[in-house]
Amino acid sequence: MAVQTSNHPIETLPAPRTLVLTRVFDAPRAIVWEAWTNPRHLAQWWGPHEYTAPRAEIDLRPGGALRIDMRGPDGSVQAVTGAVRDVRPLERLVFTTRLTDEHGGVFVEILNTVTLADRNGRTTLRLEARVLQAAPEAAGPLAGMEEGWSQSLDKLASDVATRASEREMVVTRVLDAPRELVWAAWTDPAHIGAWWGPEGFATTTIVMDVRPGGRWEHVMHGPDGTNYPNLTVYHDVVTPERLVYSNSGGEEEGPRATFRATVTFDEMGARTRITMRAAFHSADARELVFRQFGAYEGAHQTLNRLARFLATV
User: Fold this and answer.
1) C-alpha angle 210/285/200, rounded to 5°?
2) Ordered strands of the 18-25 beta sheet
3) What's the CATH code, domain 10-166?
4) How far apart are CA 64 and CA 160, in angstroms?
5) Does the domain formed by 168-312 have CATH 3.30.530.20?
6) In 10 A of CB 113, how many CB atoms?
7) CB-based contacts of 63: which residues, under 8 Å, 6+ apart?
8) pLDDT tens sequence across 54-112
9) For 305, how many CA atoms within 13 A lie in the half-sphere containing its CB?
10) Which residues in the chain are classed under CATH 3.30.530.20?
């Protein structure tokens, strides 16, 4: 299978019957990786539009077996078998896929190499599909690989986008302040304690080092006296445009909320649009922090406090 759309380029390499495909998915890398390696998710998208996968199995280790049954629109089932060659979690998956003829001989065998790269919360996929062997009768099906992969990756894009939206929280606000000032309020320890947290909260910063690999250790103090220690680790810092970080926080002796956040600062003349996108491990994890910590309402209250603070600067 291969992919060719106006937005998703394909490169045909000089080597015979080798295709390199690229596509960018609007979903975190962990979700895209799970779609390739979790049989339950693999069955949701594998195959062209009119095909389903009633059976999907993968033993995720070198030498592990793979099997995917593909049911066509006429009800017939083809068994795709293969073996895992290499596994580098979140980064690289190499496996073979094989179809046999009616006599049990090899009809076609393909070596597939999938690599995933994180792009600030989105995922770039590169797939190389190299034909290892093929019977002469496979020329027709091989000619349709391109369209088959295109449709299959369309289904994958839809699947991961749905699951990403179920585990994300997105909050947007336009602030009446220039971007440089909003950035300073967000990254200067002398400012952030004046507004960070929901209504009634106070925040004490222990250390704040805003750079890739840097840490912000802080404690949020609730209006009832409860303390919420937090640790933020910065992954990407583009002044004054974008912050990407992981955060873990919660009650001192209670459950903790862990998420990866991307905050963008878009200049709108003398105003600034803030977009906060927090990705949780799962939809259940997101719902837990919504119920237990009031995360969605708390985020809106925090931006309300930031707006009031900016008005005084």
Assistant:
1) 60
2) 10-12, 18-25, 122-134, 106-119, 92-100, 77-88, 65-71, 52-58
3) 3.30.530.20
4) 25
5) yes
6) 16
7) 83, 84
8) 999 999 999 999 999 999 989 999 999 999 999 999 999 999 999 998 888 899 999 99
9) 21
10) 10-166, 168-312
